[in-house]
Amino acid sequence: MPQTMIEKPPQPTVAESKPFALAPDKKHVLHVGCGPKRADKLHVAFRGPDWVEVRLDVDRRVAPDIVGSMVDLHPWILDATFDAVWSSHNLEHLDSHEVPKALAEFVRILKPGGFALITCPDLGEIASQIANGRIDEELYVSPGGPVTALDVVFGFGRSIQAGNKFMRHNTGFTDSRLGRLLIEAGFSEVRVAKGRQYDLWALAMMREFRLEDQKELGALF
Ligand SMILES: C[S@@+](CC[C@H](N)C(=O)[O-])C[C@H]1O[C@@H](n2cnc3c(N)ncnc32)[C@H](O)[C@@H]1O
Predict the structure, then answer these.
(1) CA distance 95 to 169
(2) Which of 37, 76, 90 to mutate to test the pocket of ligand 1 (most atoms within 8 A of CB)?
C-alpha cells in the first residue's frame, strides 16, 4: 500500500520541553515565527531595555530560543507569564484549523495586562490585485526580493524553490476574519488596521491592557 507522508513540526525532546526561564523584573515578548535573528525584525514597541525577546520558530535552522510550533506552547510556556506576543507574517503559514489553536495559546500565555501585535498579508487587497490582472507582476520589493500576488497567496516562491517548506502559506486573512478569530480566541478588544504593503495589523488586548502605556502602538491603531 502506498505510504502517505505527513510533515509534522519537530516535536520537543524531553530536554527541550521545560518551561522557558524568564528574567525577573523584565517584560517578555514571545516573537513567534521569528525567522533568522535580526534586530530590525523586532517591532519598535519591544526594543526598550525593559523588554526581553524570546524567539520561537518551527525551523531549527533559524536558531530560535524555542524550537516548536505556535499551535501548542504548553511544553515551554506557563499560563499568564508573558507580557506580549509579536507575530509578523506567520499566522498564514498555519493550516486554517490550527489558527484558533494558536490564537488561544497566545491568550493562555499572556498576562491580564498583555497584548498581541500581529501583522499578516491582507488577502482582500491581494484578491483585488488578482481580479485586476496583477497576479504575477511585482507588487513591492521585500528584503528577500520582489513579491507578487502569487507569493502572498501561496508563500514566497524563492524560498519554496530553495526547499524551505515552512515558507508555504496555508491560510489567509481579511481584516474581518482576523478580528473575529482574535475575539473568538478570548481577547477582550481587538483593533485591526490596513498597512501600506498589502498587509493587516492587529492589536489584540487582554482585559487589563492599557493602550496609553504603549505609545509606539498608539500611532498604528
Ligand atoms: C515569512 S517568515 C517570517 C519571519 C519574520 N517573522 C519576518 O517577519 O520576517 C515565516 C516564519 O514562520 C515560521 N513558521 C511557520 N510555521 C510555524 C509554526 N507553526 N510555528 C512557529 N513558526 C512557524 C517559519 O519557519 C518562518 O521562519
Answers:
(1) 8
(2) 90
Task: Let me know if residue 59 belongs to a domain.
Answer: yes
User: Which CATH number do you get for residue 34?
Assistant: 3.40.50.150
7 φ, ψ (degrees, to nearest 5):
-85, 120
Position 199 in a domain: yes
Return the closest-CA partner of residue 197 out of 159, 143, 132, 140: 140
Q: Which amino acid is at 22?
A: L
Residue 196 lies in a domain: yes
Taking only the tens place, the pLDDT of each residue in 42-79 is: 999 999 999 999 999 999 999 999 999 999 999 999 99
**What pTM did the predictor assign?**
0.92
State which residues form the domain around 108.
Answer: 27-123+170-218
Q: Write out residues with Cβ below 6 Å of ligand 1.
A: 9, 32-35, 41, 57-59, 62, 69-71, 88-90, 93-94, 166-167
Phi-psi region at 52: left, alpha or beta (left = phi > 0; alpha = psi -120 to 50) = beta
Residue 3: what residue type? Q
Mean pLDDT for the stretch of residues 177-187: 98
* Structural domains in the chain (count): 1
The answer to whether residue 209 is domain-embedded is yes
Residues 6 or more apart whose CB falls under 8 angstroms from that of 40 comprise none
Is residue 2 very low, low, confident or very high in pLDDT (cuts 50, 70, 90)?
very low
Beta strands in 33-181 (DSSP E): 51-57, 66-67, 82-88, 110-121, 140-142, 145-147
